[in-house]
Amino acid sequence: MGVFRARRSEDRQLRTYEGRVLPRQGEDVDDQGVGFDVATLLGRRRLLQLGGAGAAATVLAACGGTDAASSTSASTATTSSGLAEVPEETAGPYPGDGSNGPDALEESGIIRSDIRSSFGTSTTTAEGVPMTLQLDLVDLANGSAAYEGAAVYVWHCDRDGKYSMYSDGLTAENYLRGVQVADSSGRVEFTSVFPACYSGRWPHIHFEVYPDSSSITDAGNAIATSQVAMPQDVCEVVYATSGYEQSVTNLAQVSLATDNVFSDDQGVSQTPTATGDATSGYVVNLEVGVDATTQAATGMSAPTGGGQGGPGGTPPDGAPGAAQEQTTTS
């Protein structure tokens, strides 16, 4: 990550990194907090844009930023005229953004492209069919331009239908959660695993969009909160593989028309394209229209299409990690 240098400031030696004073003088570079991580990531992204492609791409990959593959694929992202604003949806009971208990957004290391493993005190890796999630952000309030600089927080359940930070046995884990900052094409890209289908919900991925990187530590700053509806044909192929057995039964009991989040329009604007296979993995891509000038919901209300509950709604009855008395979906 670099070499520390000391400088004289106010008659005492302060540790610095890449010319910036470390905010937590007694901690390592990796433990300086999310704000410091964001500044480091953006500084190196600027280096890449200025022409140091070879060396800078290596640095970005080491820091969990956009890797060479995502930089290449980002160049193909386009905007669509007439794209509608992505529907506002509940963040559910497991957001991990501080609005309902744990807050991953305050943790150093949350800004990363590969979200398969936990970071911090654990390095547990979630298993499952490989998946690359690409979200192409379009700034509807700015002539449908690519929304460069917007920060996106993504989270979803694992192969067993459980959520890190909340489900039984996973409160010390934070895998399948991460933040990326949109590049010049408006793209964020995450390396993950295909989520399960748990009882009562269509397979989905949650995400929150923030106007910039400095806003991510406060969930109230989100300008859009929505969900990705996983394509049915791909779900059926993935769930036929080992480890997803429970998802086969659960998927057969729900549809986009009956799901309490996607039922209003059957997820027509939230279903991504998907390419690949269950062996090498899938690339899932969705174009997301965002209008920062409209009034964003808090992300904590009951899901559209029905549902009750406290903050973020409540998990489905009998769902992994959910209390049996809870009866609505998230």
From TrEMBL:
CDD domains: intradiol_dioxygenase_like. Residues 67-81 have a biased composition (Low complexity). GO terms for molecular function: ferric iron binding; oxidoreductase activity, acting on single donors with incorporation of molecular oxygen, incorporation of two atoms of oxygen. Keywords: Dioxygenase, Oxidoreductase. Residues 125-199 form the Intradiol ring-cleavage dioxygenases domain. Residues 67-106, 297-330 are annotated as: Disordered. It comes from the Bacteria. InterPro entries: Intradiol_dOase_C, Intradiol_dOase_core, TAT_signal. PANTHER family: INTRADIOL RING-CLEAVAGE DIOXYGENASES DOMAIN-CONTAINING PROTEIN-RELATED (PTHR34315:SF1), PTHR34315. This is Intradiol ring-cleavage dioxygenase. It comes from Quadrisphaera setariae. The lineage of its organism: Bacteria, Bacillati, Actinomycetota, Actinomycetes, Kineosporiales.
